[in-house]
User: Fold these one by one.
Assistant:
Number 1:
Amino acid sequence: MAQTLFSALNWQRTIYVNGFVGHSPIIPARWNELYRAGKEVMSEKAFAYIAGGAGLEKTMEANRRGFDRWQIVPHMLRNVEQRDTSITVFGRKLPSPFLLSPIGVLEMVHSRADLAVAQAAAAFNIPFIFSNQASVPMEQAAAAMGNSPRWFQLYWSKSDELVVSLVRRAEKSGCDAIAVTLDTTMLGWRPRDLNLGYLPFMEGKGIAQYTSDPVFMRLVQEQLHQPQALETKPKPTLQAIAGLWKMANAFPGNLLANLFSPLPRAAVRLFVNIYSRPSLTWENLRFLREHTRLPIVLKGILHPDDARRAVDEGINGIMVSNHGGRQVDGAIGAIDALPNVVQAVGGQIPVFMDSGIRSGADAFKAIALGATAVGIGRPYAFGLAVGGEAGVREVLQHFLADFELNMGLAGCKNVEEIRQSTLRKV
């Protein structure tokens, strides 16, 4: 796939020239305006799922407050005419220090879901971390990306056999790393979803990685032949019937056949029971190392002791993240946790960061505090809602331009020159 050679000044100029002839950008350049635009086009359920956080959403607030505690202190007269935003991650040179963090159930946002995001990411050679809860099988998303970089997010299932199957598929799909999500061994308490009584997985949405997996589907078949415990079945309603139709529609194959098949319901039931493992420990990670040659990144590390343990266990990278504030209410902001984790790692492995990144200036601050690269999350989901693939592309162009311009205006001609000395804490 052909990739776009990006220039911040060219993109800025394009926006102004297009504006002169009456064509405004698809995507607002400021997060608050993008948020409002996305809310207008999303369904109530989709908006609650994408925008919501845990509890009182104090962790989401902490993510943003943390960035406000740091100010950029520009240096002048540094000759930044030539700017280089490239980095190297796991031996692969990337044109920018951005990743697309995994977001599940993107079909709630746009019909092309992960495919649109994959193609937008590939246009700028930005690694897309395939969600384990994707709406499109990883093989299809990988095919849409050509040789562009991608990772795979792993939710550790109760079935080790399924874990191995997913990881092997990721390897065959050309993924550069496995990002093991540690902070979602159980769903956090999410009032926006709870108030609607809605979980998209119950409709068979966001489980495409599973229904396309041979091990999972074998387990579904085995489940059909096992006696089921007596369950209290709610009285049929029009909403329940609609839910069954959506479940059948989301399942691979013919809709009419699915409506009369037990497989879609069995797949959803098995997914809900198997998708995560609260008993996960460090010992399980050794099992993963035995079954993959790919670098392993631990996503969800906030405590420096865990960072040190990760290094001792031979882990290849860490992503400082609180899942965008969706899991623990009142947790430390990701940017606040970053410096101590970086110090604990001591440069032995790369440290990535997501949760709360809303601008190129945010990315600059995270890199100054030691992050190798940063993950964009909700902004690209909102861009997808507003403009599909073109919307995601514009979100990425805004981030790339904002970062490059802030880097140059702060007196840094490349990413290596972005250091904590360019910041002041307030």
Note: The mean pLDDT is 95.
Number 2:
Amino acid sequence: MPAAKQREIYQDYVCGSALRCAREMLAVLPVQFVLVNVSLVMLNKSTGHQEATIVLSVAFSRFGVERLNVAALDPSDAISNFVHRMGFKKSSGFSRVEPVQPQEVSAQPAGGTFSAAQ
């Protein structure tokens, strides 16, 4: 299998895992959004050591998650429906990103969706 295809499959796996985590948290907690940060152990090239690195950060809104057709979506494409940060290239895979902060997410009037604060 080509390396680029393998990375795309891994991206879908990581995004699907984040989506599942959000769905399960929203199912049991009475909150309107959850922040999910995914970290991988990666080489820090400045220190030469392996360390946990955030590669995906998403603010999932209850309204946004409930309107998804989970059976038919592509997980990495579905992430674009939410405030997120993801460092990914087909040629190199995941890279470090800064996590989404709660103050970056603001409630929109009428509808319950969330977007990045201006």
Note: The CA atoms of residues 52 and 81 lie 26 Å apart.
Number 3:
Amino acid sequence: MNNRYLNNRGVSLIEMIGVIIVIAVIASIAIPNVSKYLDRSSMATFLTYEKSMEDAAKNGVLECLGSSSSKCSIQEKGNFNKIQLKTLIDEGYLSEIKTKDGQICDTEKSFVRVENRGNLNYNFKVCLYCQDYVTDDDLCKEE
């Protein structure tokens, strides 16, 4: 059983090139898919932040309607208020919103628009401004 191939433990250049090509093909398929996954994850995070802002504004409006505070200013039917993210944070309805890089979203520019439709019916629209992200709504693009 003197087979000359059994004692040869080295890897030929052709085999190395073949392995590199296989790795390159796998990487060319995997990298775009991972990138898309990370983008979707980031988008889902911002949508969650928007929902949190909306919920915080709803809590603020409910508390305002339930109190007899003179600083509570809900507009009449057909009109709207803007509640800044800074106000929601300052009044304890929400914590600071940070991006994955640790940057804090713009608390002055981000807001929730509250429209009074009458009969305790309110419409809430959120505009969130964070680093490279802006809520995809015409209302936010007008700002």
Note: Residues 13-66 form the longest helix (54 residues).
